[in-house]
Amino acid sequence: MIIKASVALFCLLTLVASDILYTSPRLFASGEAANWSQFFGNGIFQRIDLSSLNLKKTPGISTSLECIGGCWTVTGVTSHHDVSPQGFTVYIRYPSPGDQGDLTLAVAIEYKFVLKYLIFPKE
User: Fold this and answer.
1) Is there a domain that residue 44 lies in?
2) Could you tell me the residue range of the domain that residue 91 belongs to?
3) How far apart are CA 66 and CA 80, in angstroms?
């Protein structure tokens, strides 16, 4: 069983299609993105385009945020909006803007915020 898991992980890490790692429709896809846009004054968001996966149904999604600092208190990373077979949107912000200031594009760039995601197609 350990060998099968290792082989599956190796296959996942070696198959790359544009910015989306992809194995097969029965397993999952993964990717990362750092194309943030400002959402009003206190948060940022990004739309993830999944259209290249040609999904027939709305997928299951898991997201996380990677950075070099400043992201451990961010909220909204695991909330997915406008989910469809074509994509989804994630909005993030600091929970108490008064304590840390607003989450802006400048902060995301300075601390290298990268949204990581896993896609679980439903059959």
Assistant:
1) yes
2) 30-120
3) 17
3-state secondary structure (DSSP) of residue 87: strand
Q: Tell me how far apart the alpha carbons of residues 17 and 52 are, in angstroms, rounded to a whole number.
A: 9
In a domain, 23, yes or no: no
Give the contacts of 83 (CB within 8 A, at least 6 positions apart).
58, 59, 61
- Number of domains the chain is built from: 1
Q: pLDDT tens for the chain, 123 residues: list them.
A: 333 332 333 333 333 334 555 555 455 799 999 999 999 878 999 999 999 999 999 999 999 999 998 888 899 999 999 999 999 999 999 887 566 778 999 999 999 999 999 999 886
Q: Please, which residues bridge with residue 88 across strands?
A: 48
